[in-house]
Amino acid sequence: MSLVLGVLGGMGPAATLDFLTKLQAFTPAKQEKDHIRVIVDINPQVPDRNDPFAKPGPVLAEMAGALHGAGAEVLAIACNTAHAHAHADLITRASGLPLIDMIATAAHAARDTGARRAGVLGTKQAIRLYREYLAAQGMGLVTLPAEAQEGFMALLAKIKAGDVGAEVRQAMADLAQILVADGAEAIIAGCTEVPLVLGPRDVAKPLLDAGELLAKRCVDVCLGYEPVPTLET
To answer: What is the chain's alpha carbon radius of gyration, rounded to the nearest angstrom?
Structure first.
């Protein structure tokens, strides 16, 4: 029997569905019952993770607690920025669920590419965490200039509104190229909306999809191929 996975989602909904699709694709199932049981809360009403006054942490903790009560045994968060609140232990401690950490997973994968510096396409909150985790792997971080970062946030708003057209795709590829030009040897799609418009062929360096990496690790943990994380990690 596999562990039951609880997923905090809805930030945004399309990115959560993309994560679930990848989770299913990575599961080595020969028949229906071989798949992992997943309990998902797709809640687009979670307060803005980028607003310091919005306080999404208590809402996320309540959601995680409900997942635990419904039978979840391990937790994943399908949003990079929301991990900033999980890392304050609020979500994991309140729910009692060990977290499969997306940021840590992506940082380890970046190290494994052999890159010395990774560029991150993500929010400021997510970038802060990536800086910490990449440094722990002995890696440097490349970020967008301030004006380009503002452009990135505007693109995220368009993607969340359903615009994944050619103009948005090209604009995201251009931002990735800025990171490469500034010395990034690998690019981390550090927001789950990014892979909806950016693929490996769009970037001259290795592109790491944090959501995809999380999906694969969730499969490994739930099926017993990897130990369950402790509440402290």
So the answer is: 17
**Catalytic residue of the set 191, 203, 215, 221:** 191
Residue 79 known to be catalytic: yes
pLDDT digits (tens, 9 = 90+) for 186-225: 999 999 999 999 999 999 999 999 999 999 999 999 999 9
Domain of 57? 5-101+212-222
Which amino acid is located at 202 in the chain? Answer: D
Position 91 confidence tier, pLDDT thresholds 50, 70, 90: confident
* Catalytic-residue membership of 191: yes
The answer to the question of residue 16 being in a domain is yes
60 part of a folded domain: yes
Q: Considering its fold, how many domains does the chain have in total?
A: 2
Residues 95 and 178 occupy one common structural domain: no
